[in-house]
From TrEMBL:
Belongs to the glycosyl hydrolase 130 family. InterPro entries: Glyco_hydro_beta-prop_sf (IPR023296), Mannoside_phosphorylase (IPR007184). The keyword DNA damage does not apply. One of its GO terms (molecular function) is hydrolase activity, acting on glycosyl bonds. This is Glycosidase. Keywords: Glycosidase, Glycosyltransferase, Hydrolase, Transferase. It comes from the Bacteria. SUPFAM superfamilies: Arabinanase/levansucrase/invertase (SSF75005). The keyword Glycosyltransferase applies. Transmembrane segments: none annotated.
Length: 378
């Protein structure tokens, strides 16, 4: 649902030309766009907006001949190549269409039915119309720590430099990697910056006391309980880290935003859009997940953090800012495989409103104009 006048999908799977995909010509198997979603967002020097879209390119028929298949990038001479790996179906749990779990280990082992790459799409200054799709500047795996794909770009402009964090997926590690740009278009791979499973690293759009700051969200299979009666719930939380150069990060000893025990809507949570500075402090848009069926219900929430010490949460609104909007996805109903999911991934200044970019249903890119007055706090 939505309460905003400007709220629309600006990119859907059918808008992607897979003949121009980095995978084109590599696989002896049909692929399709499972989703074009979770767009990083920034404003370019020419005034237009850029969304860096995660294109999840999936096998049309991942299960065949008694096996389930995964796409993998393999280092080779030149730019490398894409190959298929086959796993015996009796060893796999295929209940989730996005992935399959492999049985028999002492821990969770997962593979994907798709491989993600990043596609720059230029939008008009208000974010509502497409100007160009820049296939020639797509970002795809380029080393072994990205062999299962590059996912979920988050873009921050700090001074005159653009920084983009991405999630790189491989059997080696589930890590955060950093790209940089002098113009928001041409990106250079910098390095791996977080070596633990972390899908939600968001660099603040500005320095604090001369340091870069970021929200992080390390994951694990074990969380320690808060004492009985605590206002907090044990589980994934939004942590903080700082860095002198955006490459080497030190976790902050103080906690960031934690899930509240009073609501199941944030039983699982993580960062959304990179924090931006307002008159009231750092505005951060983040996601909370209510347990439901396999994936859960994803909603967007917001908080204001102290401008000098972002570990201090000045205000949090427990009412959702954004929820999934079935009216938006009705024209592409035949492509839906998830519901009740909105995942906010970018925010830009639009004057008297913010332009908010989200992934809708892990399927499409959504732009919403949200009045700045909503975020005014005393």
């Amino acid at each position: 649902m939505t309460r905003y006048n400007v709220d629309r999908l600006v990119l859907v799977p059918d808008d992607i030309d897979l003949s121009r995909s980095p995978l084109a010509g590599h696989l002896d198997a049909e692929t399709y766009v499972l989703g074009a979603f979770n767009p990083g967002l920034t404003r370019l020097p020419n005034g237009n907006l850029l969304i860096m879209v995660r294109v999840a390119e999936a096998l049309r028929h991942p299960i065949r001949d008694g096996h389930v298949h995964a796409i993998r990038w393999e280092a080779d001479e030149g730019p490398g190549r894409y190959v298929l790996d086959a796993w015996p179906l009796e060893h796999a749990d295929t209940a989730d269409p996005r992935k399959f779990m492999l049985r028999g280990g002492g821990w969770k082992i997962m593979a994907l039915t798709s491989l993600s790459w990043l596609l720059p799409v230029e939008l008009t200054p208000d974010g509502l119309e497409r100007v160009a799709i820049h296939y020639e500047k797509a970002i795809a795996p380029q080393n072994s720590l990205q062999c299962y794909g590059v996912e979920d770009a988050r873009i921050s402009k700090v001074a005159e430099r653009w920084l983009m964090t991405t999630c790189s997926v491989s059997p080696e590690r589930h890590s955060t990697t950093l790209y940089s740009s002098a113009n928001g278009f041409d990106w250079t791979f910098e390095d791996i910056v977080l070596d633990h499973q972390n899908k939600d690293m968001l660099i603040f759009e500005g320095l604090i006391d001369g340091h870069y700051w970021a929200q992080t969200r390390p994951l694990g299979d074990l969380y320690f309980a808060y004492p009985p009666g605590s206002e907090w719930r044990a589980g994934p939380s939004i942590n903080l880290a700082h860095s002198p150069d955006a490459l080497f990060w030190k976790p902050s000893a103080r906690p960031g935003i934690r899930p509240h025990a009073a609501t199941v809507s944030t039983a699982r949570m993580g960062g959304g859009a990179p924090p931006v500075l307002t008159d009231h402090g750092w505005l951060t848009l983040w996601h909370g997940v209510e347990p439901h069926e396999i994936v859960g219900i994803y909603r967007t929430y917001w908080s204001i953090l102290d401008r000098d010490d972002p570990s201090i949460v000045l205000h949090t609104d427990h009412s959702p800012l954004l929820e999934a909007n079935a009216k938006l996805t009705k024209p592409i109903e035949d492509q839906m495989y998830l519901r009740d999911v909105v995942f906010t991934t970018g925010v830009a200044d639009g004057g008297d409103h913010f332009i908010v970019a989200s992934g809708e249903a892990d399927l499409a890119c959504r732009i919403t104009h949200i009045p700045k007055t909503i975020f005014a706090v005393d």
